[in-house]
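Supplementary Note 2. Why include the ligand at all?

Several targets in our set were suspected to adopt different conformations when bound, so apo predictions alone were not considered sufficient. For every target with a known small-molecule partner we therefore ran a joint prediction. The input for cytidine-5'-monophosphate is given below.
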Amino acid sequence: MTKDENRIIVALDFDTEAKALALAERLNPKHCRIKVGKELFTRCGPHLVSALCARDFDVFLDLKFHDIPNTVAKAVAAAADLGVWMTNVHACGGLQMMTAAREAIADRESDQRPLLIAVTVLTSLSADDLIEVGVQKTPEQQVLDLATLSAQAGLDGVVCSAAETRALRGLMPEDFCLVTPGIRRLEDAAGDQKRVVGPAEAIANGSDYLVVGRPITGAADPLAALDAFNLAISRA
Ligand code: C5P
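The joint prediction is reproduced in token form.
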């Protein structure tokens, strides 16, 4: 499998370093990338991120920064210093915040500059959830508007549901990276995800990378589950 075919990002949503490393040691960096999110980072800290990078994994540091521009810019620079492949901010933080984040890492050599993407609408949110927080648009319209804003800020891509990637592919520059969580096969439980899509359909819709957590980390045989996801997308 070449790097470009390496499109599954396994979300290491564990509560201890031992559990995270136990799975990482079984995974082949040629067959998946790894995502470190808020739970694992808050429990284990930056040294675990560096340890995973040192094991040759492309690490997506998914801390979804959302704060004033100066704070987010410094946080993104700190993420880049850890050697991660990708990191993210919330598009709702606004154009100024996203621009500051991009500028904070713009001067780095390309191999030391992580891809910087923005979260549009969390895949756990439905239209009713958006109304509760004062957003009257459909999730898809909100995703399209926030992706346009992210591109305007010069970001490399967005996190969205694979249900929205087809519409985004028609609108955004060709190299704009679409990262999609909420991926489930028919046999997987949705859990708290609401806008879920199957792996082959996600690729057919135009996703570049699929974030998969519990269907792999919670499987009786996580490696077999990863193989099944890779097989499904190779046939898409
Ligand atoms: O277990 P599951 O496959 O639902 O995990 C999805 C992962 O993707 C989680 O780590 C979650 O934090 C992350 N994520 C998401 N929706 C977003 C951005 C990130 O589910 N919009």
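Strands lie at 8-11, 33-36, 59-65, 86-90, 115-119, 157-159, 177-180, 209-212. The two ends are 15 Å apart (CA to CA). Comparable summaries for the other entries are listed in the accompanying table.
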